[in-house]
Amino acid sequence: MSKLSDYSKFDHLDDSDSDGEQGATAPVTAPRALPTSLPSSAVPPSSPSTGGGFVRHPQHEARFILQHEGRFIYEWEQSLNEVTLYIPTPQRIEERALEARDFVCDILPQTLRVGLQRHAGNYFLNQATGGLIDCAASTWTWEAGVLTIELQKANKGVVWETACRGGGSAPPVSLDPMQLEQERQRLLLERWQEENPGMDFRGATFNGSVPDPRTYMGGIRYD
């Protein structure tokens, strides 16, 4: 596994070894609307969490915030089909305004790398992802200091326990058991809503443990 950064938000980029994994750099797409939770000044202060640093976002129920040693790192959320990360970045370097082309975002089948072109081979984020990615269908955009990365799940309905697994100087992170159970329930309801558009599953609850959204009752339909 490659050496990881110290989560210093592009301030101090460490050297990184080369992963042998093959994949393509995801295309830059047209900017889309940014999340209302950024910039990071709006993020609440860190609090203890058994989820290895994940705190549920106060305004977006489905979104989680990763903090490390009091520093805001990124936000992430998932649906049946994709995982989306929101990473705050510099807007200027040495008095020069940055553009989308200044960033590197390599999306590999099981690895995400994020950095700056001027620091070739060095990354702010270089970690294994929480699940297998469909690289060709994944995209990223950058606008107003926010890098938005959409990772298409290779296996629809799989519940990711984390967006990126951490490692090196970055501690491993994952949702705690309660958060994970809540995500299973949310994605299972999303699946039922998708398969039964005439019904409303909002507010539905489960007795006992929540079944796997991908495999429950014959598995996800792809028609």
Layout of helices and strands, plus pairs?
Layout: E1 14-15, E2 54-56, E3 63-68, E4 71-78, E5 82-88, E6 92-93, E7 96-97, E8 103-107, E9 111-116, E10 122-123, E11 125-128, E12 139-143, E13 146-152, H1 177-195
Antiparallel strand pairs: 1-10, 2-3, 3-4, 4-5, 5-13, 6-7, 8-9, 9-11, 12-13
Highlighted features:
Immunoglobulin-like; 3-stranded antiparallel beta sheet; mainly beta; elongated; single chain; disordered N terminus; 223 residues; HSP20-like_chaperone; NudC_fam; 6-stranded antiparallel beta sheet; 9% helix; CS domain-containing protein
Task: Characterize the structure shown.
The chain has a single domain, classed as Immunoglobulin-like. It is mainly beta and 223 residues long. The chain has one helix at residues 177-195; strands at residues 14-15, 54-56, 63-68, 71-78, 82-88, 92-93, 96-97, 103-107, 111-116, 122-123, 125-128, 139-143, 146-152. A hairpin with a 2-residue loop joins strand 3 (63-68) and strand 4 (71-78). Strands 2-3-4-5-13-12 form a 6-stranded antiparallel beta sheet, with no helix packed on it. The N and C termini lie far apart (38 Å). The radius of gyration is 18 Å and the shape is elongated. Helices cover 9% and strands 26% of the residues.
